[in-house]
Amino acid sequence: MAVSARLRRDIHAKLIRFCSSRGISKTEAIERGLELLLEQDPSQAHPAYLAFRRLKLVPERATPAGRRSSDAMRAVIRAKYPG
Asked: Is 1 inside a domain boundary?
């Protein structure tokens, strides 16, 4: 879905620098930012997901290549919180 937004020059320059330093598109950067904003609103995220984020068990942004299996997630939890 296409969306149009007018950015201040300084913000646009920061966005371009951010994207070029990480090799991502402006769309990807804006989507990530919006996801972070929505995660801050408890009504927009499942409580279990928020708990996993607080424990740093969920990557910044899950991509198909970066997703973990259930077994891998259990191993991370057990390693971080043994016993």
From this structure: no
Q: Which amino acid is at 20?
A: S
The answer to whether residue 4 sits within a structural domain is no
> 46 lies in which domain range?
9-80
Does 3 fall in a domain?
no
Tokens for 9, please give them.
């020059």
- pTM exceeds 0.70, yes or no: no
CA of 56: how far to CAs of 28, 47, 59, 73, in Å? 21, 14, 7, 11
SS (H, E, C) 18-51: HHHHHCCCHHHHHHHHHHHHHHCCHHHCCHHHHH
The pLDDT of residue 46: 72
Number of structural domains in the chain: 1
The mean pLDDT of the chain is: 79
